């Protein structure tokens, strides 16, 4: 008794104490729940004279024991346990609800454990149907029965049962029709009356849920589900049309029943999705039923701020789900001789056009219109994937008018909120609308795939209408939203517009330059700037429109929309690099002015340096030097001041990082020897602009060729960079940013970096020996891959390689048992070693490093819960194994570590790795089986160890798995399939297959 009182006190302390106290109490209560004594005290806690918190703890304890510790219940105690359960359900039949719900789950768990008894479900069902549970009312008994039945299939997924999973599945299938018949009979009986009593609603809701959870079982054809579907539709119809609502809003119970019925309908349809062709006629029939019963509800709710929005949402979701599962059956109605199929298709399209055009603004006035987006993608995908021919042509012509109409609707729906309406919006609404506009942009791309050039005509008409709307009331400052939405539509399809000089685009660019932006919201100007950037590639093919684009973007640099302007200039100078030469110097002056004035945000300054690099790459060498001095020197001068002042304050750190990021961006785009596509094909690198410098790719520049500007910068500033590195060596952010800048320089310079290679490697070495950030390992890896085979650089590369290995081994030794702490470092380390294994595996033979330790740590790291280290470790082991047979040092490591690799792989498959990730381990099996077939057979015999990798998988299953894996040396897909199924067995999971 004392123990029960202690538990009760702990429960009350948990619910009513502080967070720290709760943490400790929760841990103790979990231990109590896991103890065998819990089978006894849980009943004592579930007494009517206890508080609801204590009763609830007793109920969840019983749940936990039934779910995980059934083996503790002796067979002879099963009947007593059942009786106690039923008695307690009677005790709590009238509440509290929270306790009763848990008891219903517990009875469902008990039934699952007892499924070896073929009549257990029928017995329990009849007991409730025939009112054999004490003094509980018939209504309450039915409500409880439906809750119990509904939970049984769900509990099977999580329960630990002594019955084999295949037997459980068979029993569920055998009992499914009995359960369904019971449920549907009950629903029909109640719904056939003129009015449903309020006290019956919970039972009806549970019954509707039951149809959705049991539908995956029973091996019943979809066409045999018509009675159930009609019953669920009857429930929705009853709830909505039962009686006029004073405020138009359904009562909570009616709303829940209707929504539950809709969810179950969606479950029924999706359960048969894999048999699309088999049920074409049936689905058309069901779709007609849905349209007849549900569209009138949608029509009644076709208004802003309707009170049953969520119900409308779920109706649309049902239609979309049905279309996703059976699209070909319904889309057959685009052009068909069948009037019935054609009508279903036409009514569906009309309904989803109305959904797209739902009155109001998403998401503050309506939330349905986003649901139809998926349909417009599905429809165009269905038609465009047809085999070319007359049928496809007819279908395409049939849907074009629909898509032209949808484009106009989408433009209208994508209008931004005006300043006067923003009071209705919160931050979540604004973010939802941003995502909605992105969805509209994606849908417009689908529309373009159908309409092609006709799309530009539709948008051009919309542009005329929006300008006309703007002119209706010239004094209005809020009439800009339609024009902005139209420009957004043009922007969304920019990637689809080919090089032709489309007059609609010419008109658009003209309009963008003529709008008096100062009269309207700056959002209109921002959209214009974004659109000019989006059409950079088209402008590159039509360069006579370049000046007006530059003018607009430069104007944007000095506005509140400088972010869009810098993005647009980045795109424009990348796509039109040659064409920008005549305007290069004024554009550089504009960039310099913007940088000097100080109104740009950090991200805008960094981005603008990319544009500067693009422009510098195409002007004369003399001008490059002049502008470098004017635009880049301020960055290094500021860094020099910070170094001289030995300043490591937070504000200084922010400035240092900014300047380094600006330099990094410049390094990424400044290259006077950028290759063209044709030159790449020939293996040549040719400069763009006045200095054409042909020389072999990756080779040495022609004699007398100008020095790459980046190299000039580095030569002058290497001392400063070293000092900066010394000052900030223990700050990961600064060092990481510095390394990324050097990486950008290396990427552009390639072999040109050789004059500074020693100094740069020494700088990187100093970082590796102190603070091996990810980007330091990356640049060191690139140096090694580029220059390891160069005898002049070999010693330096060996030093880099050794430094990386020593630092990472040291960090892993310091964090043994808690490797997750350095997950990012491990991911980078094994990504680096995978590249080395693939490109220059000779490193492992020529450099004195412990390869045994390298592979041993990889087997530990692939068992980490973090996906990155796990995947990179598996990739490394796989590549190391593949390359090892050509290098004795590597081969000896695999021969010594092979069994350890296989053991760790089995543990990952058995439970350490996420089940969704297990297929990756097939790569290790394939590599070992291909390179070491005889040894692999011996290593696989680890499976003969009892209860390895888990107790759930039988010796027979393990033997079959071994045979299948050993047999396959090449077929990756098949080995992945074997691994996935074996992982399910190891975890005691049944892979249910749809009918």
UniProtKB/TrEMBL annotation:
Assembly and interaction partners: Interacts with UBC9, RAN, RBM8A, eIF-1A and PAX6.
SUPFAM superfamilies associated with the record: ARM repeat (SSF48371)
InterPro entries: ARM-like, ARM-type_fold, Exportin-1/Importin-b-like, Importin-beta_N, Importin_beta-like_NTR, Importin_rep_1, Importin_rep_3
One example GO MF annotation: small GTPase binding
A cellular-component GO term for this protein: nucleus
Family indicated by similarity: Belongs to the importin beta family.
Keywords for this protein: Nucleus, Repeat, Transport
An example Gene Ontology biological process: protein import into nucleus
Organism this protein belongs to: Anopheles coluzzii (African malaria mosquito)
Domain Importin N-terminal: 25-91
Name of the protein in its database record: Importin-13
Subcellular localization, as worded in the UniProt entry: Nucleus
Keyword Repeat appears in the UniProt entry: yes
